Amino acid sequence: MNLEKSINILKKLRVKKSVFWDTTDGWQNIFSKRSSKTEDLLNFLSPRANSATGIGIQHQSNIESQNSFELLAKITLRSCPNIISFLDKVKSENLFGEECFKYKDSFYMSRSTLMNANSCYLILDQMEKRKKLNKLQGEFHKEILEIGSGFGELARQLIKFGGAKNCHFHLVDLPQNLFFAELYLGQIFGSNSISKSIFNVVEKFQNNTSGCKFSFYLPSELEDYFIQNIDFAINTYSLQEMLPATVKAYVNYIEKNLKSDGLFFSINAPKKWNIKKYSDYNFHTLKCLNSINYRFLNPAGLGATTPIFNVFTIRNSKDKVLDIDDISNMDKIGTLQDLGMGIFLEKISGDMLSITDPNKIIRRYLNLKKEDLKNNIDLLFQIALDNEEFFSNIKLLKEFARSPFFHYFSDVLIFRLDMNLRLSGEIKMYYKFLSHYYGLQKRPHKFIVHLIRKILVKFRAINIFSFN
Q1: Dihedral angle over CA of 131, 159, 233, 154, nearest 10
Q2: Cβ contacts of 403 within 8 Å, gap of 6 or more
Q3: What does each C-alpha distance from 335 to 22, 279, 299, 363, 466 come to in angstroms?
Q4: Nearest Cα to 363, choosing from 334, 329, 339?
Q5: Closest Cα to residue 234, out of 184, 333, 164?
Q6: Cβ within 8 Å of residue 237, ≥6 positions away
Q7: Using one digit for the tens of pLDDT, what is the confidence trace for 325-336?
Q8: ∠ CA 168-225-178 to the nearest 5 degrees?
């Protein structure tokens, strides 16, 4: 890559306002803090360069990076225990200032590699369950659209560790992020792998042996480029950071250009920044095949986001057109997921939760028409008792108690959990999680109960349980 020329293009390039891009306060704040020095741009994967902050890279010291990596590793393994064999084969490239860490006696990689590996694993897992993995790995041509591609790490992993072959990746992002993607993917797969460039890659690094191609698009270019017959569309973490009108433009674009048997993978929170509910995404125009709690996170506060992995396809002529009540139910499912109830919803729905087409048990719960969420959670617990042998189902009981938002539950439900955990001999586990979330460590039982009551009173006073 002619770096001097490419950096000069980057510094002069301005993103054009369009239906696919409008400025948000969150991203304006991120870009205002980024470094544009040439040295930092060429070491963008270093946490200290602060040139790629916001796309899986954090601006941190070495010790902070190590601690952040270990925390993410613990959360990832707790949320997805089966991922370990996949992580053992994933490797970082050690390019552009990337810093890698060893987790215990297991995997060795950077934090951004680990973050994307979790997404990659879940996507591959869903492809396999839906008999699409052979399609990704087959020799015939595939079109893959990734909106908000960052520096291209997810695409790299799908090729190197997911076996993707003969795929044309269409990567859409803002100029600086696409600059990193061209630099990164061009270095790894060779500039001859780049079909459409923004920054004029002219120098070959190595041969492209994967058969995959990359095309890079600024958001406004999608108004002129119609990427048709898309086999797989992907968005991780960025639709949630756009304005609702922009999100709807992207979802509409996917709906029009995704193949009838294609899949759209979305990892986004039901609520973040300007996005307040699922219907702000326009997800009701698609058909959700599965909705999965992406990570088990300790709540950072009432404003913390809860990433959800949703798998969509196109609604066909036989599928019901969703009405106002259906859309309202979709938004209620998102509210419950945002409050840490996603795992429980998945359990009572038979491990296959759909936000657009929920099954009878979920619809029964949603149609109870109670005014506040606290009462709905109690009723959800009752439905679980009706449909599960809850008192003997220790696995389900543990997952319910592990919900990072169990302090939103009513006094009756909390004490029921307490009693059931005692009867099942799991009280140590219960106290361990109470202590962990509230930082109490080994404090007396009465103090914990007193604190729970105080929290419940506080949340009720601010009407936190309202759907409105």
Answers
A1: 120
A2: 340, 341, 343, 344
A3: 26, 11, 15, 15, 10
A4: 329
A5: 164
A6: 148, 267, 268, 307
A7: 999 999 989 988
A8: 60
**Taking a C-beta distance cutoff of 8 angstroms, is the pair 443, 456 a contact?**
no
Q: Which of 235, 305, 203 is nearest to 20 (CA)?
A: 235
Q: For residues 341-362, give the mean pLDDT.
A: 84
Q: Say if residue 177's pLDDT is above 80.
A: yes
* Nearest CA-CA partner of 112 in 76, 160, 165, 164: 76
Inter-axis angle of helices 62-79 and 111-129, nearest 10: 20
CB-based burial label for 6 (10 Å; 0-12, 13-18, 19+): buried
233: tokens are: 């569309």
Per DSSP bridges, beta strands 230-236 and 258-268 are parallel
Q: Look at residue 332 in the predicted model and tell me its pLDDT.
A: 86
Q: Which distant-in-sequence residues (6+ apart) come within 8 Å of 221 by Cβ? A: none
pLDDT score of 299: 37
Query: How many angstroms separate the CA atoms of 465 and 468, rounded?
Result: 9
Q: Tokens 């990734």 label which residue?
A: 146
Kindly provide the b/e burial profile for residues 401-412, where b requires at least 16 CB atoms within 10 angstroms of the residue's own CB. bbbbbbbbbbee
Name the nearest CA neighbour of 257 among 145, 177, 127. 145
Checking if the pLDDT of 109 tops 80, the result is yes
- For 8-38, the pLDDT digits (tens) are 899 888 888 899 999 888 888 888 889 989 9
The residue written with tokens 């040295």 in the block is: 39
